[in-house]
């Protein structure tokens, strides 16, 4: 038990009442990591100088879902349909991501986390799919979070499709209103929705950098075998890094 890889999971900040406010991470991240034999550690929003200390605790990091990215970071002004954002969260996540990559520690960007990844590497975002995308499908599903709602086509030859037995397509859940507009240089799109929205990205050369627009943690904690496999794969990458560093 003592040598499970430690996976940091970034947190948002939520106010429930005046007496109840603080770091927030959906429990499905915790469940999915525990089920994959990893030890989850929640990383609250903190000054970006904290990134080094956070990283030294972790063998890998999941950049979790949450609110919008502050559009200043991709050179845009807020659109009328932008949702709330926390600039401090963006800053600590960019710092943490940069340092994790430099240290060779695996990173998995989920939903917002994939968008943060794209922006950090110089890409841009659609601020609001329903108003900015031509003929969008429903990316903000009304069915429960654990259930898949739309299909994605997997890019043949991608690491993601290899992980999923070279399947051509897959059903995923969808809880986002933003998406990648310009894909960052050095990345390829590994999965695409029927309306053309990019649903997964992978670094062209670094196999420790992956982003998915859907929520595999919720599908995995609901028992979806493919998403359990995605978590086990990420945890095993973190485990190998850990062994190398001992
Ligand atoms: Mn979607």
Apparent shape: globular
Largest sheet: 9 strands, mixed
Q: What's the mean pLDDT score?
A: 96
SSE-based structural type: alpha/beta
CATH topology: Rossmann fold
Could you give me the name of the CATH homologous superfamily? Class I glutamine amidotransferase (GATase) domain
Helix content: 25-40%
How many helices? 8
Parts with pLDDT < 50 across at least 5 consecutive residues:
none
Q: In CATH, what is the class?
A: Alpha Beta
Q: Rg to the nearest angstrom?
A: 17 Å
Q: Beta-strand percentage? A: 15-25%
Instruction: Give me the side-by-side strand order of the main sheet.
Output: 4-1-5-6-13-12-11-8-9
CATH architecture: 3-Layer(aba) Sandwich
Protein name: Gamma-glutamyl-gamma-aminobutyrate hydrolase family protein
GO molecular function: gamma-glutamyl-gamma-aminobutyrate hydrolase activity
Keywords: Hydrolase
Organism: Sporolactobacillus sp. Y61
Outline:
The chain has 246 residues and is an alpha/beta fold. The protein is built from eight helices and 13 strands. The protein has one domain: Rossmann fold.
